Amino acid sequence: MKKILAVLVALSLVLSMTAFAAAEETINFWTVFTGDDGATLQGLINQFNEEHKGSINVNHTAIAAADLYTKLPLAVQTGEGIPDLMIGHVERLPKLVGDGVLTDVTYLLENGVDAANYPSYVLERTNLEGYQYGIPWDFNAGVTYVNLDLLAKYGKEAVLDDKYVTFDEIKEVGEAIKAAGEAETVKAINYYGSLNGYLPRYEELGGQLVDAEGNLTIDAAIWGKMIEGFRELYQAGYAVGQEDDASSMFIGGSLVFFESGTWTNATLQKIEGLNYAAVAMPCYSAETALCRSGSHTWMQPDNEDRTEETDKAVATFVDWMGAHSLAWATEAGQVPLYKAVTETAEFQALPQTFLAEAFMSDHIHVYTYYHWALLDSALSHVGKTAIYDATIDVNSVGAAVQAEVDDAIAAM
Q1: Span 26-137+295-324: which CATH code?
Q2: Whether this model's pTM surpasses 0.85
């Protein structure tokens, strides 16, 4: 009898240990990081998984943004394959909420994620009608990279004194390049265009993207004025051609101001001998300057079957990623927003970190137009050809964007 009892006790212990081993929580995690920055993110996930082996395992799937925003609503609708956590673009949040795709993340903020670790003005942008639908991971924005050696060569270092570059200052640099007899081989500026390039400049000129009801309202004349200013720089010989590779020109030392985004910094940091700085996108004046910024944001898709244990594991992961996000800045070139990271000397020494400085907050605009995907698509179709083609009426460009979005909404 004693032997039987001993066997039963031993068996019970084995079963208990097996149950304990099986208690590891798996977090299915989707992101939009399919580029070089995705490798940095996966490295952080691997580190987290190693440190939490046996309790939490994060299963990361990187999906191209267009595909993610198509697959996610379908998963929520069918109840199959819903991720426990995702990182998406903050400007997509209103539509995702409106479509019933996302759930309130207040539970995370009560179980391991401290709101005090994030700038309040960023958290507020993911709070809709009193519900918190997102937690910020970073700022991602259009920025201007500046070749400091070229700026010094043409004697124009002073344009960076106030940390802004105006279009008048770009003209001055263009004239200095011409005076040096190098206008055929060196250019002052390129145009990144699209959302980052156009929306803040349109607003800076007095344009209003949406009306009080949230409808797109592009003023064709103001949009045309913006395009006309870009065309003027191109026709004066200060700007690159439409087919020119601005990235290669900047890296090769033949472009002074390179409009791109925070995501480009990961590449530039690896270029040996490239002496550059990062500032906001060119503006009409330092007083009215605006920088269109997005935020890669932690979100949770709606799923009634997700357990509290999984949610607590998600909270642990989100907080850990914030506390360890310095690599997101140093390796991926991004701008994490976790305060303990942004306050470090290592972070503050990086070229892109001006976006995290308090003085920039009044000049940053996070756009959250409900039909953001349609606007993005329209801008990519209309593009920037009018800058280079003088036969196109500049006042027709904004009207074409408006018409394409309106037609797409009507067809829904």
Answers
A1: 3.40.190.10
A2: no
